From TrEMBL:
This is Aryl-alcohol dehydrogenase-like predicted oxidoreductase. Residues 16-298 form the NADP-dependent oxidoreductase domain. GO terms for molecular function: L-galactose dehydrogenase activity. It comes from Bacteroides reticulotermitis. Pfam families: Aldo_ket_red (PF00248). One of its GO terms (cellular component) is cytosol. It comes from the Bacteria. InterPro entries: AKR, LGALDH-like, NAD(P)_OxRdtase_dom_sf, NADP_OxRdtase_dom.
């Protein structure tokens, strides 16, 4: 396992890290005992960064994770959670007010059975008024940072342009890290175009969803996936190519996403301890760069064919 610092936070985290969304049954029902064992397995294997949110499973992920963390020494991991996205009784809610952000931090600490959050993030800022994020949400979190309740402050979003806008409109040092998903993987490496910008601002980079929410998997894309049909087909062809080479596309995707040392860590999520062991075994092997080029060519060529026919 390799370890990299998240920006200038001083947190040296494992290149592969644990996303706890699956503990909330976000993707399918989970067995709580197995989910807790998954957390133990990740820590024992050298993973030292865990990311969660009250939104995942509408507080369930934090609750289940908290049960695991009660039995893990606090110096074995860094914990990241979020504010802004919530839910109850199957209904999603959003609240980026300073009052709710502050309340949310203390509520998360109670569910997680911890007295300090290493990294607090504003969750999916695309759902908010970005001016409110800059002028209200982030200042509330900075105040908690100054009080020592949280260690560091970050923002998360799918849209890289939103992350850049908030950083540009916030006082220097406010945003210490960004979390972006589906933009540094075999089928989309847009995040690479922003690395110079984030580094120049002293902002650490957290990547998520190395399998692009199932696009890069033998199981195939879930029905809810927003990808256009052309990309789904391109990734299916890439998966079949890897299969012929007896090299699971999941393995190649994991290896690719953690291979860039400019990205501090890449999050994956599972509630199955065997998946943790499998993914760690994947990244312990060297990246097959020739196969990466072949896969990216397949995806690129298929996309160009689709564009030319549209």
């Amino acid at each position: 396992m390799q370890y990299h610092e998240i920006g200038k936070t001083g947190m040296k985290v494992s290149s592969l890290s644990f996303g706890a969304s699956s503990l909330g049954g976000v993707f399918h029902d989970v067995k709580e005992k197995e989910a807790i064992e998954t957390v133990f397995t990740a820590i024992e294997a050298g993973i030292n960064f865990i990311d969660v949110s009250p939104y995942y499973g509408h507080y369930k992920a934090e609750t289940v994770l908290g049960k695991a963390l009660k039995d893990i020494p606090r110096d074995r991991y860094y914990l990241s959670t979020k504010v802004g996205r919530y839910g109850k009784d199957g209904v999603n809610t959003w609240d980026y007010s300073a009052k709710r952000a502050t309340e949310s931090v203390y509520e998360s600490m109670e569910r997680l059975h911890i007295d300090h959050i290493d990294l607090i993030n504003v969750h999916d800022i695309e759902f908010a008024d970005l001016n409110q994020i800059v002028n209200e949400t982030l200042p509330a979190l900075v105040e908690l940072r100054e009080k020592g309740v949280v260690g560091h402050v970050g923002i998360t979003d799918l849209q890289l342009e939103n992350l850049q806008w908030v950083i540009d409109h916030s006082p220097s040092g406010t945003v210490e890290s960004i979390l972006n998903f589906c933009h540094y993987c075999l089928c989309d490496d847009k995040l690479a175009d922003f690395l110079d910008y984030f580094e120049a601002k002293g902002v650490g980079i957290i990547n998520a969803s190395p399998l692009s929410m199932g696009l890069l998997s033998e199981r195939g894309v879930p029905a809810w996936h927003p990808a256009p049909a052309s990309l789904v087909e391109a990734c299916r062809q890439a998966m079949e190519h890897c299969k012929v080479k007896n090299y699971p596309i999941e393995k190649l995707a994991m290896q690719f996403s953690i291979a860039n040392p400019r990205i501090a860590t890449t999050l994956f999520s599972t509630a199955n301890p065997q998946n943790v062991k499998k993914n760690i075994a994947f990244i312990e092997e060297p990246l097959n760069e020739e196969l990466v080029r072949e896969v990216q060519k397949i995806i690129g060529d298929q996309q160009r064919v689709s564009w030319s026919n549209s």
